[in-house]
Specification:
The complex is a heterodimer of chains A (about 300) and B (about 280).
Chain A: E1 8-9, H1 11-40, H2 58-65, H3 67-98, H4 105-112, H5 114-117, H6 120-130, H7 137-146, H8 156-184, H9 188-196, H10 201-229, H11 232-238, H12 251-261, H13 265-296
Chain B: H1 9-38, H2 59-66, H3 70-101, E1 102-103, H4 107-116, H5 122-135, H6 142-152, H7 154-167, H8 171-178, H9 183-194, H10 196-211, H11 215-220, H12 229-238, H13 244-279
Helix pairs in contact in B: 1-13, 2-13, 3-6, 3-7, 3-10, 7-10, 8-9, 12-13
The chains are: A mainly alpha (about 300), B mainly alpha (about 280).
Chain lengths: ~300, ~280
């Protein structure tokens, strides 16, 4: 095993193999990343598109000064917490059921992962249609069953809830599948032994299931948090670009609007840098913390 | 004694109820799209909630292919996704091999850097990329879009290829060297054919990254004749009046192949995900 992984000393050939990937990553990721840092200190906007110059930290100051940043930061955190909470609880809950001996469970499993398979933009546009107040299936159903309407897309929190429902729909299968993989690796003997000792259902969940699927769930949850935090597609397409009145935004969709619709490029670049630093600090701490607890177990 | 995976009768009944409820939640939007796509033209704004609409017809599909530029979008998307697939496989297969087999300065940093890119908000790269492509006169062209898409799936596919190469015993390559094979020939003739399953996954992932992407295309493409499927389908909704029928029929045509592929692939994908995280 030690022989097979990364042991050939041949720098030149190794660089040759990685070169094509490095060139593409350089063009699409590395160069734009540094260019973005430069832009964030510049005054580039619609009137200064070609003749921009470095102005210092003005953009960062205006990001922190404007109330929109704090407002959308709050919304983004709420958005991420609510979504990931539902993804993980629904995912683990369904995985526990699918891990039992139930007839036809492979059919259920296949149907339950369908939302993951549908392209995201189609999910978003389809749910937007379903939330339509006049012809949308959700509004019609609510109206027929309970006789009332919810102004989904026309009010601030209605639109936010609509985005959350859409995103919960598309995100729970991933967590379910990861949890199922973790559950299948837990030996039955553990549960048998616990049952002999008289452990209740809750104790088995708390003391066997959760600790043993934790190593699989932690990386998945980290990824889930990053994906959700940055999930432009759902918020933008369900709310049709922030409707009503630029209220329905998370940080990334607000950046997009500032940069590409309001042409405040320098401002958008500074905003992006701040988000990146937030995410990096979060992931770093999260990984470090969970590593530390792993060592305790 | 009861086995841990067995359920009591009451447990079974409640398990089925929960599964059925969530399955309905999962498939309802999909059924809804199918329903709307099958409605006859004069019933598009119907308030009916029936799954199979009365007088179901395929006329919307026919209209989609004959009266709308759907075939053109399909062609554009197929071309772009196809090229991205080949480029993506080439990049991930070579880089993954270097990460798996060679020890070189910067290896750890490069592999960590690949993961870090997953944390970048897309908008952070999009703005500089957009300005850069305008300067290079590659705005509103397939080349810009293809380069951008080739990088999207690369971190994941490179890690995935590396993981697969790690499982191929090194003794095979040693034997080839002893027989006088060069290092490159060994990679090409011996390692790559053995890595075929991983290559297939990489190919499909690269393809899907381009096939289902909306935002980058929305920024880099403006010319209507260059529209990809996501841009095209969005036009059905952004017009003053939404064409739900055409949108639904288009959504089905676009999703069906990727959903089927995904279901076939999900088994490998899942084992890769859990394997990777257990190891990491």
């Amino acid at each position: 095993m030690a022989l097979s992984v990364g042991n050939i000393q041949n720098n030149r050939l190794a660089y040759l193999y990685t070169l094509p990937a490095i060139i593409v990553m350089g063009m699409v990721v590395i160069y734009p990343f540094f260019y973005n840092i430069v832009l964030s200190f510049s005054n580039m906007n619609l009137t200064h598109f070609n003749d921009w110059w470095i102005t210092g930290v003005d953009n960062y100051v205006s990001v922190f000064k404007e109330s929109t940043f704090w407002y959308f930061l709050f919304k983004t955190i709420l958005w991420t917490v609510v979504n990931v909470f539902f993804h993980v609880t629904i995912g683990i809950f369904l995985a526990i059921i699918l891990n039992k001996d139930i007839k036809g469970k492979s059919y259920f499993r296949t149907l339950l992962i369908l939302p993951w398979a549908v392209p995201q933009y189609i999910t978003a546009l389809t749910w937007r249609g379903m939330f339509n107040s006049e012809y949308g299936a959700i509004s019609l159903t609510l109206d027929r069953l309970f006789g009332f309407q919810i102004p989904w897309l026309t009010t601030e929190w209605g639109a936010f809830t609509a985005c959350v429902i859409t995103n919960v729909w598309l995100g729970f299968p991933f967590m379910m599948i990861v949890a199922l993989g973790g559950l299948q690796s837990i030996p039955d003997e553990l549960y048998e032994a616990a049952e002999i000792d008289g452990a209740s259902w809750w104790h088995r969940l708390k003391n066997i299931t959760i600790p043993l699927i934790k190593p699989v769930m932690i990386p998945a949850i980290t990824l889930g948090i990053i994906w959700t935090f940055n999930n432009f597609n759902i918020v933008w397409l369900v709310s049709n670009g922030g409707e009503p009145a630029d209220k329905t935004h998370i940080l990334v969709s607000w950046i997009y609007k500032s940069g590409f619709r309001y042409f405040r490029m320098g401002y958008a670049a500074a905003f992006s840098m701040i988000i990146f630093v937030i995410l990096l600090t979060f992931s770093w701490n999260f990984i470090k913390k969970t590593r530390a607890t792993e060592a305790v177990y | 004694m009861r086995k841990p995976r067995d359920l009591s009768i009451a447990g079974k009944i409640s398990a089925y109820i929960v599964l059925i409820l969530f399955t309905l939640f999962a498939i309802y939007p999909i059924l809804r799209v199918i329903t709307i796509s099958l409605r006859p033209g004069d019933r598009l704004l119907s308030k009916s909630l029936a799954v199979i609409p009365p007088n179901a017809t395929l006329e919307t599909y026919i209209k989609l292919f004959t009266e709308e530029p759907f075939l053109q979008w399909l062609g554009n998307s197929l071309l772009i996704s196809g090229v991205v697939m080949f480029v993506g496989v080439g990049l991930a297969a070579t880089a993954g091999y270097a990460f798996s087999r060679y020890k070189f300065v910067g290896r750890e940093a490069a592999m960590f850097g690949l993961i870090t890119t997953q944390m970048f908000p897309l908008t952070m790269l999009l703005l500089p990329l957009f300005i850069m492509l305008i300067k290079l006169k590659l705005y509103d062209s397939y080349i810009g879009l293809i380069i951008a898409y080739s990088a999207t799936a690369l971190p994941f596919t490179t890690w995935q290829m590396k993981g697969y190469y790690d499982t191929i015993p090194f003794s095979l390559e040693e034997a080839a060297y002893i027989d006088g094979c060069t290092q490159f020939k060994t990679f090409w003739r011996i390692v790559l054919p053995l890595a075929a399953p991983a290559l297939v996954i990489t190919a499909l992932f690269s393809f899907m990254a381009a096939w289902s992407e909306y935002l980058v295309a929305a920024v880099l493409i403006q010319d209507q004749s260059l529209f990809t499927l996501p841009l095209g389908l969005k036009t059905f909704q952004s017009a003053m009046e939404t064409s739900w029928g055409l949108y639904s029929a288009g959504a089905i045509m676009v999703s069906l192949p990727v959903v089927i592929l995904f279901l076939i692939l999900s088994r490998w994908l899942i084992s890769g995900l859990t394997l990777g995280s257990v190891k990491g």
